[in-house]
Amino acid sequence: MSRKTCQILTVIFLFVLVFSISFTQASAQPSNSNSKTAKWTFMVYMDADNNLDPFADIDMGEMMKIGSTEYVNIIVLCDRLEEPAYIYKIEKGKRVLPEGSPINGIEVDMGDPETVKTFLNYVIKNFPAEHYFLDIWNHGNDFVGSCVDENTGTGKRGYLHHYELVEALQSVCKKKRFRIDILAFDACLQGMIEVAYYYKDLVSYLVGSEGYVALEGYPYDEILEQLVNSPDIDADAFAKIVVDEYVGYYVKENMAATRGSFPTLSAIDLGKIDQLVENLNRFLQTLEEDIDSYLGAITAGRGKGILPWAEYGWEAYIDLYTFVETIGTFSQNDKLRTIAETLLDSIKSAVYVNSSLQLEEMSVHGLGIYFPPSKSAMYNNPWLDGEYYAEVPFATETEWLNFLLMYYSHCS
C-alpha cells in the first residue's frame, strides 16, 4: 500500500491509531523564535487532516529523536484529523510552540495556498537560514497536486493543486527574496517531469517518487541526523541523502512497511529541466516526422516503460528514460538514435535515483511522464485526469501532448 489515497484502507488507519505513539498538545511549551541565521531550516507542511493522521505522531516522533540545533531549525505545521493546527519547533524529545505563531490551535485549510504563505512567511522571518527545505507531507496525485484536507472549517474538502503551490511560492519568494533549495514530497507519484516543470523556476531541487510512497513516509530521524551532523552540506548532497536514506530504510530495515510497493525516490536538479525538455522536444519532433514507421517502437517503449506502475491498476504514466531508451534500441535511424542518446544523457544528468533491487532490475530511472494507454482512456477514465492534463504547463508548453494525440490518431 502507499500514500495514494485510493489505496489506503480504513482498517490500517484504525490499527495504527490504537498503537501509534500519542504526543498530546500538553507536551507543547512556549519557545522564542531564532534571530540568528541557521545553516538550514527544515520545514514540514504536515497535512494530517485525513486518514494519514496516525502517521503524524510517528513522523514527529522521529523528528524529536534528533531535534533542532544551533545550525538546524526543524519547524512543522501540523493539522490533525480531530485537532486544530499548530506550528511547532521540534526540539530533542519535545515539540514546542514558538511565540507569535499565526497558527496556534485554529482550524486551517491545508489545501489553501494562503495557508502555505502564512506558514512560509512566519518561518522565514522567525527562523532564517542559509538554506531552506520544504517537505509537503500528505497524499500525492501526480501532476494534479496533493494535500487532501477533510476538515477545513468551511464545510468544503481542501486540496492543494500544484499551480496553487506555485502561486504561493512565487508570492513568498518574491516578497522575501529567497529561494527554496529543496522541495520534497513525502507523497506518492510526484517524481514526474510534469511536476518538475511546475517548479523549475522557483526551486533548486525536487525530491519525489515516480512510484508510491510508503504510509510511514520518510525516515525523518535518519535524514535529520545526517543534516544535524553535517549542517554545512549543500542542497545537491542533502537531496541525495534524503533519497538514499528513504530507500535504504525500507530495503534494509522495513521492507514490509511498503506493503507491496517497491521503494524508489529521486532527487531532480531543476536547473537542468529546460535543457532536458529541449532535447525531449527534438526527440518527439523527429518521431512525428515519420510517426507511422515508429508506431511499433513507440508502443513497445510505452509497454516497457509502465514497469510496476500498474501494480494497482494505475497505468497513466511511464518511466521516461525507459521509453526513450527502448525506442532508440528499436530504431534503425542513426539520426534518431543520436537524438535519443542526447536525451538519455540529459535525464541521467538531471535525475539522481535510488530504488530497491527489484526496480533497478526493471530499469527504473526516476522520472515519470504521463502516457495513458489510449485517447479514450485519457478522456473518459476520470482517474486519468485527461481534461485536466491539457491545462498543465508541461502539456501546453512542450511537444508532449501534441505527440500523444498524434500517436493515438495514427493507432486508431
Explain what you see.
The protein is α/β, with parallel strands linked by helices and 412 residues long. The chain has helices spanning 10-19, 53-66, 113-126, 162-176, 193-199, 220-229, 235-253, 273-289, 291-306, 320-330, 334-350, 357-361, 375-380, 386-389, 393-397, 400-411, and strands spanning 30-31, 38-48, 72-80, 85-91, 94-98, 104-106, 129-137, 140-141, 145-149, 158-161, 180-186, 203-208, 264-269, 317-319, 351-355, 368-370. It has two domains: 5-261, Rossmann fold (3-Layer(aba) Sandwich), CATH 3.40.50.11970; 273-411, no CATH class. Strands 1, 2, 3, 4, 5, 6, 7, 11, 12, 13 and 15 form an eleven-stranded mixed β-sheet that branches. A hairpin with a 2-residue loop joins β4 (85-91) and β5. The longest helix is centred in the middle third of the chain and has 19 residues, at 235-253. Mean pLDDT is 89; it is low at 5-28.
Quick synopsis:
This protein is 44% helix and 21% strand. It has 412 residues and is α/β, with parallel strands linked by helices. The protein has two domains: 5-261, Rossmann fold, CATH 3.40.50.11970; 273-411, no CATH class.
Per-chain topology:
Elements (H helix, E strand, L loop, with lengths): L9 H10 L10 E2 L6 E11 L4 H14 L5 E9 L4 E7 L2 E5 L5 E3 L6 H14 L2 E9 L2 E2 L3 E5 L8 E4 H15 L3 E7 L6 H7 L3 E6 L11 H10 L5 H19 L10 E6 L3 H17 L1 H16 L10 E3 H11 L3 H17 E5 L1 H5 L6 E3 L4 H6 L5 H4 L3 H5 L2 H12 L1
Parallel strand pairs: 1-5, 2-3, 2-7, 7-11, 11-12
Antiparallel strand pairs: 3-4, 4-5, 4-6, 8-9, 9-10, 12-13, 13-15, 14-16
Helix pairs in contact: 2-6, 3-4, 6-7, 8-11, 8-16, 9-10, 9-16, 10-11
